[in-house]
Amino acid sequence: LSAGVKDGSWTVLQLVEALGSCLENTDPRTRGRGIQLLSQVLLQCYSLLQEKEVLHLVLFYENRLQDHHLVIPSVLQGLRALSMCEVLSPGLAVSVLKAIFQEVHVQSLLQLDRHTVYSIITNFMGTREEELKGLGADFTFGFIQVMDGEKDPRNLLVAFQIVRDLITKSYALGPFVEELFEVTSCYFPIDFTPPPNDPHGIQREDLILSLRAVLASTPQFAEFLLPLLIEKMDSDLQSAKLDSLQTLTACCAVYGQKELQEFLPSLWSSLRREVFQTASEKVEAECLAALHALSACLSCSVLSSDTEDLLDSFLSSILQDCRHHLCEPDMKLVWPSAKLLQAAAGASLRAYHRVTHSVLPLLLEQYTKHPQSSQRRTILEMLLGFLELQQKWGHVEEDESTLLSLRAPVCSVVFSALTDPSVQLQLVGIRALTVLGSLQGFLSPSDLELVVDHLIRLALHEEDSQSSEAAMEAAGSLAPIYPKVFSGHMVPRLEEELQSEREEESSRDHRSLRQRCLQALAAVSIHTSIVKETVPVLLQHLRKVQKGSEAENARDVVSVCQSLHRVALQCQQDAEGCRYYHQTVVPCLLAMAVQAAMQESTHPLLGKALLEEEVLAAMVPVVSAATTHLSPELAAQSVSHVVPLFLDGEVSFLPQNSFPCSFQPFEDGECLEAQRRLVILLMAFVCSLPRDVAIPQQERLLRELLALSCSCNCPFTATTAAKCFAGLVNKHPAGQQLDEILQLAVNR
To answer: Residue 732 belongs to what H/E stretch?
Structure first.
């Protein structure tokens, strides 16, 4: 039948006439089947109907809403089809809804038929908003009656969305605000568990979020909702607590202080009780989030001269209940109190100033009062929490900042922690130092020099490796903020330590000190201006240690390479740093390696640290990291030097390039064994180039590498030549040349 309507063989009204006897039959079942057939056709053809046809059909269906209850489901399906028609005359939507509100007891219908009613309402709200608003609060009241008592989760999701639209699209709620709240809040908190084989896929979380969106959508609900939330926070069920706290947080985004005012004491007392008593981290986290949201909401309210500053009185009650616990660093309420104060303080600059004005002087005083390291650590960790909040606003305001007025005692406490024998206290001190350094304009130039002195002492001379590593990390995060101080004050000190030869120290202590110097130089190389100071120091040290031949020297060279590698990684994102590093380090490493290989060719028994397998392997990541992020121009320039060096012994681009003989790594000969090992550096370079960089003399290079990997009797060299060959083949564009090379390899 639908096909006939679609191709114009007959109209829907002709179909109604043809069904006439069936639609007027005295048996409700027969009438129901006739209407069902008509409704199914309408659901397929509603978009083809003319305005006049829609008018007749709407009147027919409205009339049938008074029919026998067996017929109603099919009538509703027909109205759902008509609610989707674009050519619905003005006034019809209102008339359909009035008829449904008046004639149908929706909650006595089956789930699917109730769902149909919600769909009709949703469709009209989407297309006929202005008309429905003309009904005023009658529409809201009608819907409340439709929804009242709904139990099915599939229907609730739609019903909650309708309520939310009523509110957010400003339909008139009239005298029915409380009724609308009652009809939705009766589901709070949601305790739905989907059946194990549920085909509808509705999760508890969907219902929770959908209901929360309704409850937290308007300040008009505040007077009813807040008492409910306070009651449910007291529940024994953790899920109810969490839902109440999350809903409260959501409400704070739309409420003002007017809505919150009378409930603030009860809300605070519930939140405080939960944080002081709960064993659950989840509940604690949600309480703190809610307190933060309350503080933020009160911070945003505009003050007029005659209203009380609610933020101030709210924070006063929090301070009154929590501040004294901070004086008991061993007791169990110290951390809950600190967290509550930090949650409230972090909501706005105004709240932060109000809380820190009261709390920071107290913490500084407590630090001096309690000499034990464990207590001091607790106090400093609390202080650190407040300092970290200041980071949110970045700069320190001159006029109202408590922090600036306390600069001297704060620095003195942090510096004293750095010299404490307790490693745990030192670690908190280092974190605090990093935060202070990140606050613009907080540390004076003389403070900064002290900071550097402390960091050097901890990084190089502190026995515990945790403190040493933390100090290096701190130096790394502060260096880019104060590049001048670090390149001018720290790098020269590290260089001095690196070069000092101390007779009285055992060689093991001296090695560990050198090792730490190298790590510290790498850690601070974050800013290009510092890199330009540290790289020459590292390379100078490399030249010095590679001259020896003991196993010790090989380990030293590996350490320098590890530091150089870290610097290379830190330079990759900065174009200028990347260029400087590549142009300085790569030629220098190649020159040292070539020099060592040539000396080996002429004086085979000296034994060179630089030619050890583990040392060459440590140079690979340095060359590789220095090459992967090159600009196309620099990569092209570099490859035009490095490839001819290996193929033709072209050494003119290397620093200190007066070598005793020629460099011929691809030639045969016993005495060139050492030179052939350097192919690993060629591999590190060409395999790390960006894919689109052209390799000069590529075919010749591939043939040489293939020959070397097949004929060389040193496994180390043969393997690296094969890897280098593979890297070039992988980047080679497809085509005849590549096929020839692969064929050559298979033949070989």
So the answer is: none
Query: In 3D, which of 723, 715, 633 has the Cα closest to residue 686?
Result: 723
Q: Does residue 411 lie within any of the structural domains? A: no
| In-domain check, residue 179 | no
Question: pLDDT tens across 263-287, in order?
Answer: 999 999 999 999 999 889 999 999 9
Q: What's residue 402's pLDDT?
A: 75
Q: In the predicted model, is pLDDT for residue 206 greater than 80?
A: yes
- Helix ranges restricted to H, 169-308: 177-185, 204-215, 222-233, 238-252, 257-260, 264-277, 281-300
The Cα 589–Cα 587 span in angstroms is: 6
**What is the DSSP track for 296-318?**
HHHHHSPP-TTS--HHHHHHHHH
Residue 193 is given by DSSP the state: -
What φ, ψ does residue 190 adopt, rounded to 5°?
-65, 130
The per-residue DSSP string of 234-248 comes to T-S-HHHHHHHHHHH
Q: Are 175 and 137 in contact (CB under 8 A)?
A: yes
Question: Per-residue confidence at 308, pLDDT binned at 50, 70, 90?
Answer: confident
Give me the pLDDT at residue 637, please: 94
Q: How far is the CA of 324 from the CAs of 69, 346, 364, in angstroms?
A: 70, 20, 14
Asked whether residue 92 is domain-assigned, the answer is no
pLDDT digits (tens, 9 = 90+) for 356-366: 999 999 999 99
Tokens read off for 126: 């989407």
Q: Which pLDDT tens digit goes with each residue over 51-99?
A: 999 999 999 999 999 999 999 999 999 999 999 999 999 999 999 999 9
Model pTM?
0.83
**Burial (Cβ within 10 Å: 0-12, 13-18, ≥19) of residue 572:** middle
Q: Is residue 407 part of a domain?
A: no
Domain containing residue 593: 525-747
The kind and range of the H/E element at 646 are helix 632-648
Cα 503 to the chain's mean position, in Å? 51
* Chain position carrying tokens 């600190």: 338
* Each residue's pLDDT tens digit, 570-626: 998 889 999 999 999 999 999 999 988 888 777 765 557 888 899 999 999 999 999
| Cα separation, 626 vs 465, whole angstroms | 29
CATH of the domain at 616: 1.25.10
Mean pLDDT across the chain: 92
Phi, psi (deg, nearest 5) at residue 581: -60, -50
Tokens of 102: 């008046």
pLDDT at 554 over 60: yes
User: CB–CB of 377/383 below 8 Å?
Assistant: no
Cβ atoms within 10 Å, residue 283: 18
Cα–Cα distance measured from residue 689 to residue 666, given in angstroms and rounded to the nearest whole number: 22
SS3 395: strand
Peptide bond into 195 cis (omega under 30): no
Per-residue pLDDT at 398: 57
| Residues whose CB is less than 8 angstroms from the CB of residue 584 and which lie 6 or more positions away in sequence, other chains included | 535, 536, 539
The whole-angstrom separation of Cα 231 and Cα 252 is 18
Residue with tokens 């060279």: 557
Domain count, the chain: 1
Partners of 440 in beta bridges: 395
Helix (H) or strand (E) holding 622: helix 613-627
Return the structure tokens found at 709: 């990997």
